[in-house]
Design goal:
Radius of gyration: 18 Å
Helix content: 25-40%
Number of helices: 10
CATH architecture of the largest domain: 3-Layer(aba) Sandwich
Distance between the termini: 49 Å
Largest sheet: 5 strands, parallel
Number of domains: 2
Order of helices and strands: HHEEHHEHHEHHEEHEEHE
Number of strands: 9
Shape: globular
């Protein structure tokens, strides 16, 4: 009797063969590692219950709950005073609980199945928020400094951007690069998140020219204060982007 295939080899086949493997071999929960049944990678039933999602009606400028009295499309009270982001914002999950665990599994553990699940959820959130999709849309990842990318071995936002482009018909594009290796935004030594990322990014050479006149979706793993996303959006607008929206795996 042949030996059962290892989880690692099934994951390799799934990345290479997609739907065919989904029909034959089980997926494993990216959080607890238990089988979650045939089909694309996803959390098991128990872990799925720990995933927090933004509750509608949602604010179009920050992606968070707009309040019980708000109507569809209304901004939340904070964004009425000062918009969180100049374009539309959508997040698949809340960072606390299972959403944050999925991001960390991708970001620090290299668990690509967690990223595949996050990207599918991000695509759904973007569709609900009317964020542009399809041919001609550019998915631009928030850039990671080369030193940090070497340490981690994975650029999580680029991976998510590639998955989103493949599923929606768009195009992934590294239009920006990080020229300063800034401390993490949550670092206790960071007194101003805006100042921490000011002038930390630059256009990525010739690739940046493609942005002119295009609908751009900025892709990030976690959005907290929005300072990084706003700085990237400022540059993309300066490069001539027709619109810049934000799609995040998690909202913190």
């Amino acid at each position: 009797m042949p030996k059962p295939l290892s989880r690692r080899f099934i994951r390799f086949l799934r990345r290479r063969s997609g739907v065919l493997v989904d029909l034959v071999y089980p997926s494993f929960c990216p959080l607890c590692g238990e089988p979650s049944g045939p089909g694309p990678p996803r959390p098991c039933t128990a872990c799925r219950a720990r995933l927090g999602v933004p509750r509608p009606p949602l604010c179009p400028h920050c992606g968070r709950a707009a309040g019980p009295a708000a109507r569809r499309g209304d901004p939340c009270p904070g964004c009425r005073r000062r918009p969180f982001f100049p374009g539309r914002v959508a997040g698949a999950f809340l960072y606390r609980g299972g959403g944050g665990e999925l991001v960390r599994a991708l970001k620090f553990g290299g668990r690509l199945e967690a990223g595949l699940f996050l990207a599918r959820a991000m695509a759904r959130a973007g569709r609900v928020a009317a964020i542009p999709r399809g041919r001609g849309v550019l998915y631009v990842p928030v850039p990671l400094h080369p030193a940090k990318r070497r340490r981690r071995g994975l650029h999580q936002s680029r991976f998510l951007a590639e998955c989103l482009a493949r599923s929606t018909g768009g195009r992934p594009l590294d239009a920006l690069e990080r020229i300063r290796d800034t401390p993490p935004q949550g670092d206790p030594g960071v007194l101003s998140r805006e100042a921490n990322v000011r002038d930390a990014f630059a256009p990525a050479g010739r690739r940046a020219r493609v942005v002119a006149g295009a609908a751009v979706v900025l892709v990030d793993d976690v959005t907290t204060s929005g300072a990084t996303a706003r700085e990237c959006a400022r540059l993309l607008r300066r490069l001539g982007a027709r619109s810049v929206d934000l799609l995040a795996a998690c909202l913190a």
